[in-house]
Amino acid sequence: MGVKIITDSTSYIPKELIEKYDISVISLSIAIENDTFREVDMNNEEFYKKMDKSDTIPISSQPSVDEIYKVFEKHVKENNDIVGIFISSKMSGTFSTACLVKNMILENYPESKIEILDSKSASMQLAFAVITAAKVAYDGNALGEVVQAVQKNQERSRILFAPDTLKYLKKGGRIGGASALIGSLLQIKPILTVVEGKVEVLHKVRAKKRAIQTMLNILFEDVKKYGFGEVTILHINCQETAKKMLDMVKKRFGMKVKICDISPVIGIHVGPGAFGIAYYTKDELKTRV
């Protein structure tokens, strides 16, 4: 008996960590033109090429009740407790569906222990919370301690990104407070973040180079104030930009930094050419925007 961690495919956790910590990943899906794919089965490079050529923006969909139920039931039958951590409830219905499934499981298995957590984010910020939970569970800690570790990580993490255009966020309805930028973006490169699960504007600059430096300055200042935890560079089809950011972070901190493609379900709302960083600090971040 132990604590098993369940998340969704927008966390984009490396395969080796999924296997090491036995993390269950439930896939969202994407419909593009006449085809529907599970996100976990997609090749990112091929998907974004197809997206570029398509006349319509793809549509994402959450996992079904049945898909989530089967994963939950498997762990419950093995006498495990469950901590589920999912994409922001303001970005997807996955969290709400997981809560519904939790109640269904409790009706059939009243002795089971399940906690469902809203990550209030996605991509690597979600991944940081999931990996934190998995490590704590792997060390044999109880459900309450796993939940507490996730909550502490959420208080210390931040994601910053700059889309090449806001049209994807606007069309997908994920733009939140960034909507004020629509119509005034001819020469503006917005730096966005996620606050309480919604996309918000952090800064507005006028060049890609300035956007990169502004993001890194925020990271450097946060680390100076709150200590260094971990950082990952994010991008969609702009490897050179990601490599440049990686080199600047490595030069500053002298440690290993990862580069991660932004996964398709998030990518269809952010759009090709987006780049950013996700990180967490040693101590709680006091300022979000």
UniProtKB/TrEMBL annotation:
SUPFAM superfamilies: DAK1/DegV-like (SSF82549). Signal peptide: none annotated. Keywords: Lipid-binding. InterPro entries: DegV, DegV_C, DegV_domain_contain. This is DegV family protein. The lineage of its organism: Bacteria, Bacillati, Bacillota, Clostridia, Eubacteriales.
